[in-house]
Write a structure and sequence with these properties.
Layout lengths: L1 E2 L3 H12 L9 E2 L2 H8 L6 E5 L7 H10 L7 E6 L4 H9 L2 E6 L4 H14 L19 H12 L8 H13 L7 H13 L3 H17 L3 H7 L13 H15 L12
Parallel strand pairs: 1-2, 1-3, 3-4, 4-5
């Protein structure tokens, strides 16, 4: 299912998707209200959502999807020519799995549509590239394992701050709405540092990951798609992507682990 203010784009995407044997198109809409009405009567596994529609914006649609009483909410792929970081973080907290920037590459879009079939929270996570929580392994250890896969080993400056940030955001997603004012100070207080040092150290750790060549592949796996011409994610984007991956991979588990980590 797709909602995009550009009717021509909807038609092009719909035609391309219908050519794929493993993808079924259940609806194409040019405004969010129509999409929400359709979701009341039609089951959709995936929604491709334009974040910049005029009548009802993407965040309002996401809130509407979340408010609907559904056993399984659809996986949402957000599309837009530009998404401000604040909007991106809010969208992540409302369940957006992937962001793609316009103009859309149809093959990339198809890959993202197929991805939830093997990597969504509704599947068996034992077969993910990063295996779901191992027996006896704490969430903190799992975050460490993911960071190692990203190319951020424990000896890298910023490792402990980034790890703590991810744990806090999984436990309290509202931290994403105030990264500078609340998240960094909370980490700084825990480690007796300063918010400025925390921010710089996390940025250094992410930079090291990309210099090692592992960061881009890992971030793509957890759902992050880089802004064209930017490359590596911002601190907030990295934290949000990994935290959302962990949160959705462990639906039903107690999220309060960060308090004890």
């Amino acid at each position: 299912m797709m909602a995009d203010a550009d009717a021509d784009l909807c038609a092009v995407v719909g035609e391309h998707m219908r050519e794929q044997r493993d993808i079924e198109v259940v609806g194409l809409y040019t405004d969010g209200d129509a999409l929400l009405r359709a979701l009341d009567v039609v089951e959709a596994d995936i929604v491709i959502l334009d974040m910049s529609m005029s009548r009802i914006d993407g965040l309002s649609v996401l809130e509407g999807i979340r408010a609907q009483v559904r056993r399984d909410s659809p996986v949402v792929i957000a599309v837009s020519p530009f998404v401000p970081e604040g909007v991106m973080l809010q969208a992540r907290s409302l369940g957006v799995r992937n962001f793609l920037y316009k103009p859309l590459d149809l093959e990339t879009l198809c890959r993202r549509v197929r991805q939830p079939a093997s990597e969504s929270p509704r599947c068996d996570h034992r077969h993910l590239p990063i295996q779901s929580r191992r027996m006896g392994e704490s969430f903190a250890e799992e975050v460490g394992r993911i960071m190692g896969g990203m190319g951020v080993p424990p000896h890298v400056r910023g490792y402990k701050y980034l790890r703590r940030a991810i744990l806090l955001v999984v436990s309290r997603p509202e931290f994403l709405e105030a990264v500078t004012k609340e998240l960094y100070p909370a980490i700084a207080a825990h480690y007796r540092s300063t918010p400025q040092r925390v921010e710089r150290a996390i940025r250094h750790a992410i930079q090291c990951a990309y210099e090692r060549g592992a960061g881009e592949k890992m971030m793509e796996m957890v759902g992050f798609v880089a802004t064209p011409g930017v490359g590596r994610p911002s601190n907030a984007e990295c934290i949000a992507s990994v935290a959302e991956y962990l949160r959705t991979a462990h639906l039903g588990h107690n999220p309060d682990f960060a308090r004890n980590s």
